[in-house]
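I can't quite decide. Please look over this sequence plus structure tokens:

:::
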Amino acid sequence: MATDIVMPQLGESIAEGTVVKWLIKPGGAVERDQPLLEVETEKVALDVPSPAGGVLSEVMVQEGATVPVGTVLARLETQPAAEGVVNRVGGVGVRARQGQPQGDQHYSPVVRQLAREHGVDLALLTGTGEGGRVTKKDLLDYVSAHQHPSPEPPPTANTQAAPQPHDIPEEIIPFTQMRKTIADRMLLSRRTSAHVTTFFEADFKGIDAFRISRALTYLPFAINAVTRAMKELPRLNASWGDQGLAIKKNIHIGIAVALDEGLLVPVIRHADQKGLTQLAHEVADLAERARNKRLTPDEVLDGTFTITNHGGFGSLFSTPIIHQPQTAILGVGSVQKRAVVIDDAIAIRPMCYLSLSFDHRIIDGATADRFMAKVKQHLQQSDWEKLL
């Protein structure tokens, strides 16, 4: 039976997607739920799992192509199933149809594919699966026991020497769709907002004394302090519009997550209504799924304010670019012990530089500094036990 792999619906507002990379090549075997390809929209990148085990028999849409939702991307040859069944697995649309006979059903498509790759006669194997079926493990164990890597052929007189590093002036790495999107958005933000950055320094002694025993990171404390300050200065939770300033009633905090190929900003919704423990759990969950490309497009939408924890890499200062159409973005630097003057005495305290890049069209420096003073106050003077 053959199954059509189609471009999935990746969110209510998403009408198309880009095939970034096929993780399985045509003719390759794939197991159920194994990542089949990587798809990207203007909002998020994620891996699309295979709806069934089988062999990727045909690829209709090549890497780099952008196609509408519902477009047939590839065809998967699978085991026979009920004719005309429509499945949706993990948000991926598949259409099942009756195909050509699969031959000897004693062997799965994965086993047959591996046997072809390793030149194994399946008739020589004794299966350990149900009903004597030959499993993937049976085949791999056989290959490991009976086959050895072939020696490399000796070099010939016509073999050219490999180019040395100094012979290659440069390496061209093609831009990914994500990198192009980030570049466009950063330039658009700089052209749109009147960027200004203000810096504050906060003493994290009280936070350190509380968080270490509870295995919490600094980020939940920053989120909590921001949401509380925002209640007093709601213009920080707004966006510029043609008709005027739009003050957001909900506080949805975006958290910048660094990936190898770019940056994603998943959103913690109604962050002002959540305690430290729940914030910590959601931050960890969103960051993990962002790195594993398992976020849904809806999880990166509707943010009203963004926090970027650049201090995780040791950075002290930052002037982050505003995530449009928001008013501001907070940068949290590395927490380091420094000598500071407290009550006319020198003390060693865990200190952190905080930066706020804000849109000067919406708020003035005085408002931004009042906001940061409140954030600092909440970070330094809160009773965290009550906010847990």
Observations:
- The longest strand covers residues 345-359.
- The radius of gyration is 27 Å.
- Residues 177-387 form a domain with the Chloramphenicol Acetyltransferase fold (CATH 3.30.559.10).
